[in-house]
Amino acid sequence: MSRLARLRRWIGEHLVLGLGILVLIYTFVPIAVVALMSFNDSSKSRNLYKFQKFTWDNWLHPWEPNGMKESVILSIEIALLATLVATILGTLAAFALVRHRFKGRSAANLIIFLPMASPEIVMGSSLLALFVSSGFGGQLGFWTIFIAHVMFCLSFVIVTVKARLGGLDDNLEQAAMDLYATESQTFWRVTFPLVLPGIVAAALLSFSLSFDDFIITNLNAGQELTFPMFVWGASQRGVPMQVNVVGTAMFLIAIAIVLGNELVRRRQEKALAAG
After folding, report:
1. pLDDT > 70 fraction of the chain, expressed in percent and rounded
2. Contact, 261 vs 200, CB < 8 A?
3. CATH, range 66-239
């Protein structure tokens, strides 16, 4: 075999892997820049995103910019509450759509994708019109943001949990029933543990979408100031480096949750194999 043929064969075998690595690099380079800039001392330079000097001050004093602490706490509160409600409702809806046959099921599956496919400016302005027409126009704030976030997170939760349910092996549940397990026991001891990784993934996705949403939140926030809105306002005069600290911390927390969930899953698989 000639060198050219061997080269073509090697490229063909490793092309997908190489493209995957390039995509990962492209994805993580901005995150690496944010992490690097969280240690940047830009107090003596107007160029905030030029690395000047290494410092721990940004991490030791993350709440130094006025108003940032309150905006982060508000975003976390809304994201946690919206994630909880959207995950519960979305999981129930996913089970209904996958496990039951009813009139309008196909239409419901189509409607679920509309919030995901619609531009955020359309959804945000539509929700604002809904709140104003419902009498909430003068009361825009925490609860209108919460309702808006639940509405657009719900579709992502349903789609994620549906994908997990669609990949389950029905024989496992049938085997549990054959061993005289009740429907309740089968659900909590077989079905729910198998679906749990999908539910956790949907919750993490919902939290991320809620925490960093700007367009829909900006239209329905009233006088409230969430973290993305704070960053947008601060960008007019210079983004403080502590913003990078918050971004890096949230990324590390998400990684820790994902790794923890994966470790728990592997331990459960080993326990089942040993049993």
Report:
1. 94
2. yes
3. 1.10.3720.10
Tokens matching residue 17? 């892997």
Start-to-end CA span in the chain (Å): 50
CB 77 within 8 A of CB 147: no
CA angle, corner 25, sides to 48 and 252, nearest 5?
Answer: 65
pLDDT per residue as tens digits for the range 207-252? 999 998 999 999 998 888 999 999 888 877 777 888 889 989 988 8
Q: Are 202 and 87 in contact (CB under 8 A)?
A: yes
Q: Within 10 Å of residue 203's Cβ, how many Cβ atoms?
A: 23
Calculate the alpha carbon distances from 236 to 16, 67, 231, 233 in Å. Answer: 42, 15, 9, 6
Structure tokens at 196: 């749990």
Instruction: Tell whether the model's pLDDT for residue 128 goes beyond 70.
Output: yes
